[in-house]
Amino acid sequence: MGNLNKEIRDGDHPDITEERLKSTFDTHKMAAQIYNSQRAADRRNEITSAVLKIPELQDIKPLPFLSREEKVEEAARKIGILSEHLYDLVNVNDGAELYHLNNVVIGGEGNPLALHGVMFIPVLQAQATDEQKKKWLYRAMKREIIGTYAQTEMGHGSNLRKLETTATYDKATEEFVLNSPTTTSMKWWPGNLGKSTNYAVVVATLIINEKDYGPHSFMVQLRDENTHKPLPNIEVGDIGPKMAYNATDNGFLKLNHLRIPRTNMLMKHVKVEKDGTYIKPPHAKMSYSAMVHVRAHMNNTMAYFLASSLTIAVRYSSIRRQGHINPKEPEVKVLEYQTQQHRLFPHIARAYAFSFAGAETVRLYEKVKKDMESGETELMADLHALTSGLKSVVTYLTMQGIEQARQSCGGHGYSMASYISEIYGIAIGGCTYEGENMVMLLQLARYLMKAAKAVKEGKKVEGLVGYLSAPDNRHSLIDRTPEKSYDTYLKTFEHIARQQIFRAFDKLEKMLTSGLPHSEAWNKCSVELTRASRLHTRLFIAQAFARRVHDVVDFHIKEALDDLLHLHLNYELLDVASYALEDGHLCGEQMNFIRSELYRSLGKIRPNAVSYVDAWELSDMELRSVLGRRDGHVYENLYKWAQNSSLNRTDVLPVFEKYLKPLMMSARKNSKL
Ligand SMILES: CCCCC/C=C\C/C=C\C/C=C\C/C=C\CCCC(=O)SCCNC(=O)CCNC(=O)[C@H](O)C(C)(C)COP(=O)(O)OP(=O)(O)OC[C@H]1O[C@@H](n2cnc3c(N)ncnc32)[C@H](O)[C@@H]1OP(=O)(O)O
Ligand SMILES: Cc1cc2nc3c(=O)[nH]c(=O)nc-3n(C[C@H](O)[C@H](O)[C@H](O)COP(=O)(O)OP(=O)(O)OC[C@H]3O[C@@H](n4cnc5c(N)ncnc54)[C@H](O)[C@@H]3O)c2cc1C
């Protein structure tokens, strides 16, 4: 039968093997839950093994030792080699396989084709006519051209209706004139725009006969296909170094009265006819599809970043020994400390929860995408609300979890040898891109306020907000019912979200009745509104977790997931308990119960801790972390890693003769005086 934990190998650090031998579940079967099928989990490992056999695909040295230019070059080099092997390594129509291949070979710091795959191709798939697809999409898929999605400007990212780049229709020539009239109108931020791409879908404000029709998407060739020189009337370049993600050339773009044919506007759903007649799309926000695409997938990418950091932290915590619990016994693994467990385990549960919520979101996204192809738009609002809330909550909680993982590694966590700071830098970009988190929470709040209004008017609401019209208990039944059921927890989360949604609604209504204009009242309620959105979203995450556990058939996997869910519900509830204490829905006695359940959960999780992270099956190659090594041999490899430092090339650096020696000499001279 073999070991349940599939990472056990001869020669590994005994402390980590000891952990793995305690596993109560098969880590590869658990991977099937995380990646949504056994086949997908198998494929990940097959792809990793195949990549390991291709020497040119390995990192030339640890990425933190590369300069920015070397990072950009290294990512491009690997993309070139990957292109030769692509069809042997993955099914190119499978996004998850491509994403995994990218993570193993290149990592999260980016590559020249990042935005090409994540936004350029999806926007063409969703918004180009068949004719336009023939012209650009198929070439893009074969990588004959490389593109990006250029929407954000220096002056505007969130408020798309105020984009300054204009696309003015010239009926006489049947062209659009694209123009960046001011410094702030320059496109600023689009990934790979700076140096890699030769095409972009540019989002610009459409003007016909001086009338503003709002943001629309246009295909623009930026560079010559052979020389890669920028074309006339186009200024393009890199925006400079960022907190992280520095293998990517986020760029700027200035368009100087650039003329493009009318047929370069993406016209699957919306049209401008030769004579300038504007034909509306079936839904006003259909052109936002590329953003919704990324938001829908971000739960899973965030879960991956969080799981990566936790894999590093938990593995390291199992070989790091410091201090005593029993003074007569040897120093303990730091994982034995309750504070360490409390710092890490709830985030493990969140990584699983985000992955399960992510799977449900992607399913809804796929359905809406299909509906939209035939002009059906009914579920777009639901999807927009769900993805807006999730992207905000999940990125924020991921940020917290990664930082806790870093701190839990003590001093070595601060070294780039842990690689956690890079993962953190990449992940927190997600709090901003694809919609600044507060802005997106407020988008969800609009949807919630509509639902609250309907309920107040006596209508029944359904689906994601169905709980707003469901019966509510005045007091939580946690600890008050004989049977142990997650339902009581979920009902408490529902109560909290419902109360906050109506609290925000009542406040808003009161201000409106007092005569405040809607936008002012909205602003004055906006903190309460974002709270409502967060609680609604956290309820959804907890429900998605519970739904998954409910559906699992394998006994040992179900039991292990059940333990994580139990931890999740108790930890999350404590985190938001003030809302339930406020109206007496929970009492002090119940709080004590929840706390004691949380501590019990930590103990229950402890023996499986390494296996829970191992189940993500993240190879050493993709983790790029000395602390997170599968074999647990951290210390000797930390020393080896440091040898890469260019400061160690010579024993004495030139700065000694130049600055330090004169400094010390003159200090010595002065002290003799
Ligand atoms: C397997 C594949 C793997 C894929 C991997 C995916 C991800 C990987 C992640 C990382 C990988 C690495 C590379 C990627 C890295 C970075 C990429 C970043 C790219 C970008 O960073 S790219 C720019 C994104 N930039 C934004 O994200 C701007 C945010 N700003 C907005 O998005 C709008 O500005 C908004 C929505 C705030 C306001 O827009 P607005 O002013 O036009 O509308 P308004 O507020 O008036 O709302 C009127 C009515 O429209 C409804 N509504 C709005 N949007 C809708 C929608 N989409 N669907 C259905 N309904 C919608 C409302 O709900 C309302 O409905 P109602 O009236 O009923 O309440
Ligand atoms: C790593 C990274 C990659 C990116 N890639 C791309 C890309 O490929 N293509 C692209 O087009 N763009 C890209 N962007 C840009 C990104 O989408 C925008 O930065 C993002 O949408 C936020 O917009 P902003 O910068 O205008 O923020 P701002 O809106 O200026 O945010 C500043 C503050 O104002 C607040 N605020 C703004 N509006 C409101 C409001 N209505 N109500 C309440 N508060 C508000 C925000 O909450 C925030 O606190 C990228 C950004 C990053 C960091």
From TrEMBL:
Main location: other
Coiled coil residues, start to end: none
Keyword Cell cycle carried by entry: no
GO biological process per UniProt: ascaroside biosynthetic process; fatty acid beta-oxidation using acyl-CoA oxidase; lipid homeostasis
Cofactor(s), by name: FAD
Domain Acyl-CoA oxidase C-terminal: 487-664
Protein name: Acyl-coenzyme A oxidase
Organism: Caenorhabditis auriculariae
Phylogenetic lineage: Eukaryota, Metazoa, Ecdysozoa, Nematoda, Chromadorea
